[in-house]
Amino acid sequence: RAEFFRQYGAQWTEFARLNYFDLVKYTIIDPMHNLLLGVAKNQWYHRWIEGGTLRANTQKFYRELQFVHDFLESFEAPKWAGKLPLRVGEPAGGSLTADEYKFAVTGPWAVIIPLVWDRFLKDAEQEHKNALERHTQKVTDYKKKMKAWERGNKKSDPPTSPPAAPVPRMRAGEDLNFLRFATALKIFVSSSISMYGAEAMKPNHHWAVHIPEQILDYGPVYGFWAFLTERLNKVLKNMNSNNWSGGRLEVSMMREFHRSSRLDGIVS
């Protein structure tokens, strides 16, 4: 087992005894978790919301997130397509589900994100320019303090570490990059590496490039992604279990299932 791990970088499995078994090819990457709850969530929540790209309003300034909210209030879509919380991106909006990310990426966000960049990018670039000027002054002050500390024979504690360079809050091309994600994930991943740097990449970005090959092997994503089982889990969680256990839970859930099925049959 240890030798297998050293050679292949993977834990041992009894399947490895089969000559035809391909550990990589036969490990299915779920597109729902990988693309929607992985790549899409990383871009929207971790990079744009937590990263401060899309900010909430203040008393003085109309900001990016409110622009998105105003758009969603007037955005219309068929009920079967889905919907988004009006306060998306704020704690009041809650966490988005995979269904909501799927709808958002292929629907409203593909429309509104380019408009956000068109309106707010110049302001963000000016903010970054001002921050760079302040950073230059901070670096100059830091160097002066270091020289003074060295002239003092380093008797006291040295100055704190040099100031970190400011990072752009918004980048030109991010809106186009997001549209690429909605249409071609491989282009999105490669562009993200050059835009944000390799250190910003997550395992989901790498796993995503294997999905086209999986589609060739297993067919459309609708046949093997986890939406069906996740929705079934939601149905089961919403059933009244009466706190049964020890085998009686299954009976109670089946009764609830048949009761709901009969009710649906009467209504339809």
Question: Can you walk through the features of this model?
Answer:
With 268 residues, the protein is mainly alpha-helical. Among the domains are: 56-199, no CATH class; 227-267, no CATH class. Helices cover 59% and strands 0% of the residues. The protein is built from eleven helices and no strands. The protein has helices spanning 2-8, 31-49, 64-74, 98-106, 108-151, 174-183, 185-196, 203-208, 211-218, 227-238, 248-267. α3 (64-74) packs antiparallel against α5 and α6 runs antiparallel to α7 (185-196). The protein starts with a helix and ends with a helix.
Number of strands: 0
Q: By helix and strand content, what is the structural category?
A: mainly alpha
Could you list the spans in which at least 5 consecutive residues all have pLDDT below 50? none
How can the largest sheet be summarized?
none
What number is the mean pLDDT? Answer: 81
Region (Disordered): 148-169
Biased composition (Basic and acidic residues): 148-157
